[in-house]
Amino acid sequence: MPSGSSILPFADWPKSLIDGMGGLSRLVKGGYEMDGSEISQLDPDELINAAKELSNLGCKQIAISSVFATVRGDMEQEAFETLTKAIPNLSITLSKSIGGMGLLERENAAIINASLKPLANEVVDSFKLLQNNLKLSCPMFFTRNDGTLIEAAEVIELPVLTFACGPTNSMRGAAFLSGLNNALVVDVGGTTTDVGEVKDGFPRLAGTSVMVADVRTNFSMPDVISIGLGGGSIVSSEDPLSIGPVSVGHELPQRAKVFNGDTLTATDIAVAAGRCKIGDKKPPSLSSLDKLIEIMDKMISDKVARARTSNTVIPVIGVGGGSVMMPSKVDGLEVICPPHNDLANAVGAAIAQVSGQVSRVVLVDDNIDRDSAIKEVTEEAKKLAVKRHADPKTISVLTVSDMPLSYLPGNNLLINVTVVGDLLMETN
User: Angle 221-227-232 (CA atoms, 0-180°, nearest 5)?
Assistant: First the structure.
């Protein structure tokens, strides 16, 4: 039997999602053992026949996942090259390009990425059309979910790298506008509030597997907690008192009480409490105002408490159009709302740097010691950053981690290195 047959693709997916995506899969021989030795050779004919079956069923987006591809990824690459020649109209995602350790999580991430590629292509084409209409001849970049930049061509191939880039941009922008590189960030929008932490000016990433639509994955995502509280959140001022999660969203200027509308919103509550001056009408008088403010503050405070990783006293940066609703202190921490905080998302995107991340399993033995292995992976990450148009003179190491893999034979280390650098501005 092919390796991995005991855990089939889509094994832990919700049925509704499988039905929506088709849930088609095929197993072929191949893969590696944990020490990098072959389980079996890849059979090109078997691979091509399996891909043709899927293609004939209407599947044009293919995800390839091989056992221990993070130890050796050459078989996935061989499969990619074989299928590209045999069936040129297929769009292929390799699991080694996305996820880290963990067959199930890495495979899931590759499947999600493959399913998003047609949408990513449409989005990029739309932006290119807009760019042409505006007669802009500059290169186009998108923001990644780690707070750095990615080229349009890479977005089409790896759209999952842009997941949750909105909150990431806001956190980067918050750090820049406030001048604080280590803080908690509360981004209050029209419908939701996102809470996260910045360390050294970059968002703290989730340290474990990340759930996307109830599917377990392992690609890098910011560690963000979200709640249904925003400036447009609908408020019930009668028992039982409640705020959100339903919101008027972009219709706030038409529906909020302070704009002569007929819907009580969180913005109305903030205005009535004297936290901000918005609108052209006197805020409503509410007997339950104090209790509603208490509910709103507790919603934010609870999420800030969850986002804290230690008892260290650090500031809270409030950003977003709805940050005017925030109190002066949250969970005992001072709240700072810097000037232009409503533009934090755009600022974060504008200041984004270019990154290079490499995750590799290295056998430390007589031929290479730990320090040399880390140096080797670091150089690989720097080369990747330069390939993505980072200025070599500005590249610095952001994070380095190494973890012994006790279940592998020998002294194997999983080494993760992230470097960042400024975007190289090309001039004529």
Answer: 125
Scanning the structure block, which residue is given the tokens 């389980």?
A: 39
- Any idea which of 4-8, 227-231, 298-302, 367-371 has the lowest mean pLDDT? 4-8
Nearest to 210 by CA among 202, 219, 201: 219
The reported pTM is: 0.80
Which of 367, 363, 425, 384 is CA-nearest to residue 34?
363
Domain-wise residue ranges, the chain = 1-162, 166-350, 352-421
Q: Can you point out the beta strands (E) in 161-241?
A: 183-188, 193-199, 202-203, 210-212, 215-217, 225-227, 233-236
Q: Could you say which DSSP state residue 341 is in?
A: G
Q: What is the pLDDT of residues 351-373, one digit of tens each?
A: 888 888 888 888 887 778 889 98
SS3 state of residue 65: coil
* Burial class, 25, CB count within 10 angstroms (exposed 0-12 / middle 13-18 / buried 19+): middle
Q: Which residues contact 409 (CB under 8 A, 6 or more apart)?
A: 34, 35
In angstroms, the CA 359 to CA 202 distance is 19
CATH of domain 166-350: 3.30.420
> Helix, strand, or coil here: 166?
helix
Residues whose CB is less than 8 angstroms from the CB of residue 311 and which lie 6 or more positions away in sequence, other chains included: none
